[in-house]
Amino acid sequence: MQLGMIGLGRMGANMVQRLMRAGHDCVVFDNNPQQVQALVDQGATGTTDMADFCVKLSTPRAIWIMVPAAVVESVIDQLEPHLKADDVLIDGGNSYYQDDIRHAKRLAERGVHFLDCGTSGGVWGLERGYCLMIGGDTDAVERLDPIFSALAPGFGEIERTTGRTGSPSRAEQGYLHCGPSGAGHFVKMVHNGIEYGLMAAYAEGFNILKHAGVGRADHASDAETAPLSNPEFYQYDLDLSQVAEVWRRGSVVASWLLDLSANALAADANLSDFGGRVSDSGEGRWTSIAAIESGAPAPVLTAALFERFSSRGEGDFANQLLSAMRYQFGGHHEKPTS
Amino acid sequence: MQLGMIGLGRMGANMVQRLMRAGHDCVVFDNNPQQVQALVDQGATGTTDMADFCVKLSTPRAIWIMVPAAVVESVIDQLEPHLKADDVLIDGGNSYYQDDIRHAKRLAERGVHFLDCGTSGGVWGLERGYCLMIGGDTDAVERLDPIFSALAPGFGEIERTTGRTGSPSRAEQGYLHCGPSGAGHFVKMVHNGIEYGLMAAYAEGFNILKHAGVGRADHASDAETAPLSNPEFYQYDLDLSQVAEVWRRGSVVASWLLDLSANALAADANLSDFGGRVSDSGEGRWTSIAAIESGAPAPVLTAALFERFSSRGEGDFANQLLSAMRYQFGGHHEKPTS
Amino acid sequence: MQLGMIGLGRMGANMVQRLMRAGHDCVVFDNNPQQVQALVDQGATGTTDMADFCVKLSTPRAIWIMVPAAVVESVIDQLEPHLKADDVLIDGGNSYYQDDIRHAKRLAERGVHFLDCGTSGGVWGLERGYCLMIGGDTDAVERLDPIFSALAPGFGEIERTTGRTGSPSRAEQGYLHCGPSGAGHFVKMVHNGIEYGLMAAYAEGFNILKHAGVGRADHASDAETAPLSNPEFYQYDLDLSQVAEVWRRGSVVASWLLDLSANALAADANLSDFGGRVSDSGEGRWTSIAAIESGAPAPVLTAALFERFSSRGEGDFANQLLSAMRYQFGGHHEKPTS
Amino acid sequence: MQLGMIGLGRMGANMVQRLMRAGHDCVVFDNNPQQVQALVDQGATGTTDMADFCVKLSTPRAIWIMVPAAVVESVIDQLEPHLKADDVLIDGGNSYYQDDIRHAKRLAERGVHFLDCGTSGGVWGLERGYCLMIGGDTDAVERLDPIFSALAPGFGEIERTTGRTGSPSRAEQGYLHCGPSGAGHFVKMVHNGIEYGLMAAYAEGFNILKHAGVGRADHASDAETAPLSNPEFYQYDLDLSQVAEVWRRGSVVASWLLDLSANALAADANLSDFGGRVSDSGEGRWTSIAAIESGAPAPVLTAALFERFSSRGEGDFANQLLSAMRYQFGGHHEKPTS
Predict the structure, then answer these.
(1) Where in this chain does the record put each 6-phosphogluconate dehydrogenase C-terminal domain (chains A, B, C, D) (predicted)?
(2) Which chains are adjacent to chain C, needing at least 3 Cβ pairs under 8 Å?
(3) I need a labelling partner for C125 at 20 to 30 A (CA). Which of B247, C31, D67, D75 fits?
(4) Which pTM value belongs to this model?
């Protein structure tokens, strides 16, 4: 079937390619003519004019928006005058689910369906397919089924969950209608919150392995650190790249994120290209806020989020106050950074 | 080659089977004659007498101990008089790495090699193979290579890590000589610490999804909870079993632990067979202690550990004191449990 | 000067008494005639009719609202038709500072000033005075100065902060104009967030002291817990009531919250009147949300909040999933609750 | 009575002065002759020779050791040959309680009593007195009562705990016999653990106040941070020095640590003398380890400890791995530090 794609960044462009490979017909829009042309060269219909884009799509239209969360609102503003009843708009980016609820209400007034679709897969999705978490009207979801189905990874060779039988459900093909408006991005939000926790678990673990030699005489010791109680037990020099590799096979902690860690550590076990200032994109924050608002304890996910803040120096003033208190009650001077 | 196995519980018995399938010759010992007989029926040589066990093994012996950590010491006590120079002892259980260092020193005095081997794989290892993390003398590790190789999963069909070439290393076959005495169990300890963090990340995430309907009128509300600020945003009734399923394909959070969660949720999305009193086996504790002793921050792994303590009521007195303070300063009465 | 007080609960009634003791003239309103009468008996002018209340106040009016956060909006709705330009409304409850900003804008349209005032002091404020954190127009704050001054504790006998000289500032008398609309409740919100952290620090500490005897033979051991590594180091039977007492004098952890803990433990060192289901009132949540939104790491304050959620069973499903995963990968059965 | 003091650093020297003011007779030892002379000038008997020190003390001796934890063992080694049955040794430093148990056993073999005494008070103790937490034999504690009593703050003007009557107990005078060997340092250890939690609660809270202006146009924005959702709610410019001051009077968070924070912020609200690399002295670590070993959840205290580790860069590798994973799955480049 025909799909219009707005936003031809890494994600959007790859998704168009995956759809065309599956035989779908794509009309693409971006402000950047080069990105449009690149897909036109591969068989898409393209334009840098929003009105023209809407004209090129046959009604009822199916339009997928793949832009940064902060831009979605203005894209809808531009699209709205051109839309007609029964058109379907899908926000496939990392939007806040509360915005979806608002957008869906607004567009419903003119009979336009709005779906929210959490899309996981990153740069790997073109080949592996995208895991899709969808919210909104059942009718609209049904109409778009061929598109979702083509983007999703499919049943693949993954071992079937115990107890599941019969022809594979959509979930088993990698896409799911989660519930009404916002449900897709709600599930995607929590997905990313979990991702933060998983990533932090590996990061902390490898950091402990990295510290396994702090008792060695040749190990740079930090004058500020409390003296190590049992140096004889911290004498190891572990090869983190090999450890990541061995865990990929048969261990309980095997995962795709571990595979990626193994890639990174194989390239450089010291990770010296990275300074350790870790960004966060919004969904980790929203997950913790949802946990707080709904009263669900989430200490692990939230600690993972706060570690990212701290990595960017956002806790510095708190640390300065700790040093200042120590100076006040004990006359302790901060040791120089050397 | 020939291997002696002490301890024929779920892990030990499965490992013997996997070794015999690979053509190795196993002599087995357990205090329980039925467990010995079960393996004898499959071709093992068996005994319930420790001296006899040592006689049945040709020297230099290779003996694998697969018993609870608390029992290892007494098994070594029983074995020691029967051992000779050049024998190799492997502790394949979940022992504390600091005990390994002690055991290795003690046995070295009579020329016996002691290897520590962290073994991951659980009940699935018989078919999938065991991920092995080994510490100790290089010579002894080399001598046992056929055993480790047979127990490990092998290279398998897992996609190769970017940049790795040539014939697969041991790590790529699922076993690794991590370093000197204790290094194997140190790596396994951190592996389990990470596992606690990963498990908690999924558990907290699914719990947030479970709370996504707290704003619904039909949802049981708890009189003690602060009133929900934005009930209109917590109106979902998500199918957790389907969510777990869809994440298995193409998403960033795919992992073996997620596969297991999907199994459990497919069987019963309410998990009503489980009361939520979560045990911990020691290694999560040791990981956090290692983090503290070596000065490596591990807030996520440690929060995961403490959640398990709390799940067993170990934080009750702290909570009582909080309620008592609230009563003292604000006259707040605890609401009844109903 | 004259002040109208709406809401004669524990806080409101005590504040009226403190104001009348200082010579101020109070007009009081409550839906409950008995609570009105109790203060009329002490010299206040009273009414249960909102219109009448506004008539009894001379213009420009000064009205203090002391009601639950959830009721503030409807009180303003009732008051608004009776208000005139230059009247001042103070919300002295535990409102969300973002609501203050909204209320102030709305009332400014008819020339009414809206102040937000975080009020700390609990049931002890009548005698000790109330710590006041105020937000809003400088003019209105100045006009109400006699009221704030009378409610605040005053300079008292507290040792002066190093470096402060001259006549005591308002802050040194226990009240502070923090900034524009919402600033008072923002500071009060963070004050309560800190309070959650402080309370949790004491609660966890006393709980560790309570666990100091887990190695004793007479101590009830929990079959689910990992066996204690070093029982010989956990043989104490500490008198928590005495420990709280000794810390009150000369120690670094002395505080008012410790005084309250000492009161509670002196009454019953087992705190058996309390079940340990700890409520939270909203401000702890808002503090953590503010931390997340503004990118300030707050792992301690947020962990304290989540402990309260867990104390009410809100983490149970997460714990059930942990047990379910353990069963899946290791065949571990949850131990019975006994 | 007579007391020998070993170690004339800030703590030891002040304690000798406080004892002499109370009429006690002090014999002092230090390797540094200047520190000995300073106290001799004030009336103490002094020496830099350990044997001479023991000779100068009348038997049975009472000797207080006030040296860094790492030095205690060697001081005992030097003292031991000179000691006789019935002598009492007090370790008043910040030693690990498990070492006390060992030391007490060793010295008991020659009839020497060993007391452990946690001492809180810092540089303020000379004037305010020291809060003392004592472990060991009851007889020895009784014999030393005059010393403990003189060091402790005494009943003072602190309001009595509700329900306490009669003549003040030792705890009400600021010293407590907590239990057998190690109990004093165990209680002091947890005291310091709580202190870490309290300090972190204030530090995080003030840091949130510091972030209250992140939505202002004039506020330096960090390119790496997720865009602020609601900038209109983060427009404040709060005077942290004034906030600390106002909380000192009548608020729930009043405490000695807040007084110290007020001192520091009054001197420089930007705390620019401090870099924020926060040391830890051992007791916070031991508290968290005790929590883990005894199964008592302590997420707040442990998060506070880990924040200190992170402040010293000990989490950098973990953060680098997070950035590396983000690069792997999403092609995300770390933003430059600028």
Answers:
(1) 184-337
(2) A, B, D
(3) C31
(4) 0.95
